[in-house]
Amino acid sequence: MMVCLNTSECLEDEGRVNQDSYFLLAAFLPAFLAFGLWGKISVALALFVESVGVVDSAEWMVFADTLLRPTIIGVVVPVISIALATLVSTTVNVLRQRQVDLRAFINEEAGEIRFLRRAIFGMYGTRQHASRRARALILLRGYVEQLMTECEDGAVGRLEEMQLSGGIADNELDRFAAMLHGVDGAVASRQGSVQAAEELIKSLNSHRSKRVALLLTDFPVLHWDILAATAILCWDLDNPFSGSFSIAAASTQLADLRVCLREDIREALVESDEIPSTTRKFFSQFGGPSVSASREIDSEDEELNPSSRYGLLPTLYWHLLTGPVGAYVRLVGDAAAWLTTIFGRKMKTIVSRARSIMKRWRRNDVSASNV
After folding, report:
1. Does residue 142 contact residue 170 with C-beta atoms inside 8 Å?
2. How does 243-259 read in b/e, with b if 16+ C-beta sit within 10 Å?
3. CA torsion 75→79→81→87, rounded to 10°?
């Protein structure tokens, strides 16, 4: 929990927090409004331009095609892409460099703590200084424990609380330095060790200041919000058939096209059935097997027999079609198809009439025999 020693400082901190909230609201509110109302804004702008009569619809479309779209595609989109790429790369580089620097400072502090331990034995290594040696080692152990606490998860939050309370510079090295500048330092066995301990304490304080500064120097919340929004946008664009920018609506035309193709196939098969079966069999010898209306073409059907597709008659027929007389051959084929169709219809009519006459004769014979 944050503890404030000064009322004015607490008020200033609360004011900064409120100001940050206002800044975040001012930054995100226009973006959310634009995202939610862009359709209505676009329609309203088009209606306004049309009602005012600045430009007509044709001129507006030309203006959009010649200026707006090229500007958005050629300038706005690349600029946003470069800005986001720079933001992501800078974030990764800064965070990685901070990790490297923190690792270096921790290693340097650990090494200098070992040297300071040896300096303590140099100052208070004799029996008469056993109590001073114990007190100095306790202070050094306290600094090591503080260093371990500052290297754990959640250390940033604790350091921020210490910074707001004004006690971030308070550590056990301050009390250790007080020993060196008092009677305890004057009675030390070796004054050279006292000087070495002073230099090590100064160096440890410098490393800790830099390490704490790196831990407390973080990106603002708005920075992470932009990166999160960018990641969500990339995830949304990853699947083109779902999300806010889905193109699934573009595939609805394929369903209409499939319906049209089914209708075309049905008409073609019905027209094919109007040709007599003997004529279809004859034509199938030149271009493969024929298909009737009772059997629709399926992509999973077994492959056609190569001999029926590339036999002698199909080969000759293909050369005739691709040769100088190809137009005449196609004309003869269409004429034969139509003539056989007309002849087939006439024959069906004649056969049906003959059957009806035969039925009447049979009924008359039956009625005469009964009489």
Report:
1. no
2. eeeeeeeeeeeeeeeee
3. 180
How many CA atoms lie within 13 Å of 105's alpha carbon, on the beta-carbon side? 22
Contact 200, 116 (CB under 8 A): yes
Query: What distance in Å separates the CA atoms of residue 353 and residue 358, rounded to the nearest whole number?
Result: 9
Question: What confidence tens digit (pLDDT) does each residue in 229-286 have?
Answer: 888 878 887 777 787 777 777 777 778 888 888 888 888 888 777 777 776 676 666 5
Residue located via tokens 């779902």: 242
Distance (Å) of CA 263 to CA 24, 268, 271:
58, 9, 12
Alpha-carbon distance 321 to 325, whole Å?
7
CA distance 224 to 220: 7
Q: Which H helix or E strand runs over 122? A: helix 77-124
Q: State how far Cα 170 lies from the chain centre.
A: 47
**pTM strictly above 0.70:** no
